[in-house]
Amino acid sequence: MNKDQVKAFADKVYGDMAGAMAVGMAYVGVKTGLFRAMEGKGHLSTDEVVQASGLHPRYVEEWLKGMAAAGYLHYDSADQTFQLPEEHAYLVASEGTDHFMGGLFYFAPVLLGVAPKVADAFRTGGGVRFEDFGPECVVALDMLNSGQYEQRFGSYWLAKLPDVVQRLQDGGRVLDVGCGVGRVGIAIAKAFPKCEVVGLDPDVNSIRKARETAASSGVGDRIHFVAKTTRDLDRDGGFDLITACDCVHDFSAPQRTLAEMRALLKPEGTLFVVEPKAADRLEDNLNSIAAMYYGFSIFHCMTQSLAEDGPGLGTCMGPSRMETLLHDAGFGSFQELDIRSPTNLFYAAKL
């Protein structure tokens, strides 16, 4: 046994555990507004952070020390002050932007909270259903994606499909499958005022939140949210565009659901799919983002599908599997779109 390798791996385990604790502390920083309280204020003493945040002094003191140890804050030992650098604030104190990473911190406690149930499923089969993750999961998923959907969907992503853009400008119909709290539909309704948008999700709580969000965004009268599945939805003339964002890999019956989506399209319609960015081969996924996605898969995406007797495609199913699924569902053309993103892949399919 190589003792140096043992030590190196022990250091890695400690590093991974430190990372997990850093994520937990960062969750607190987002949830309590600590990052926001420090943003743009330079070096602050502990008392100044307490005053700016209005939080319990002893907790704030320990959080500041922990975040400094984790590298999230800069610590000046001479005057014993803490700073949230501008470059860090850009990612952790920027709620609502397309570069905010705080949703990751929200998602981690949700995932690890079901770890005991997932461990049981390793022995017994099945999995954890979406409704068992609790209301914080809906919030976390929204935080993960909302900024990108609001700021990139209509202006950048759909621009890669000029024929779709023209249809929506002329007043086309859009269906967003797996709509969650409705951010995609809202973004489309804002970008294309003439089009009709339907949001579809089987989760009643998400649909309720979607209606509230659309109303507060001023487009509630132009979006119709329904708590149904593609099997239950009336085609009603068909849709020019169907979107499926970060959800195909979750489907419990992907072949059937994609075929039902195909049937809901107009003959000249387009299916637009957003999926996590992962390669087809494991050797090309040996990196931090893929490692994160495999964790998402085990504790959220795959387990949901398996809980419903689905195939458990998993978060990292890759573009080849996506192409096969779409062709098997009856789509005649498949295209991987040239859209730059460190975390997403984009596809278009037609009849």
Give an account of the 3D structure.
This protein has 351 residues and is of the alpha/beta class. It has two domains: 3-93, Winged helix-like DNA-binding domain superfamily/Winged helix DNA-binding domain (Arc Repressor Mutant, subunit A, Orthogonal Bundle), CATH 1.10.10; 107-350, Rossmann fold. Helix content is 51%, strand content 14%. The chain has helices at 3-32, 34-38, 46-53, 57-69, 86-92, 102-113, 115-124, 135-157, 162-169, 183-191, 204-216, 254-264, 288-307, 318-328; strands at 74-76, 81-83, 173-177, 196-200, 223-226, 239-245, 265-276, 333-336, 344-350. The chain has a seven-stranded mixed beta sheet with strand order 5-4-3-6-7-9-8, sandwiched between helices. Strand 8 and strand 9 form a beta hairpin. It starts with a helix and ends with a strand. The model has no long low-confidence stretch (mean pLDDT 97).
CATH superfamily of the largest domain: Vaccinia Virus protein VP39
Question: How many helix segments?
Answer: 14
Cα distance, first to last residue? 58 Å
Task: Please count the beta strands (DSSP E, at least 2 residues each).
Answer: 9
Largest sheet: 7 strands, mixed
Order of helices and strands: HHHHEEHHHHHEHEHEEHEHHEE
Number of domains: 2
Strand content: 5-15%
User: What is the percent of helical residues?
Assistant: 40-55%
CATH classification class of the largest domain: Alpha Beta
CATH topology of the largest domain: Rossmann fold
Q: In the CATH hierarchy, what is the architecture of the largest domain at level 2? A: 3-Layer(aba) Sandwich
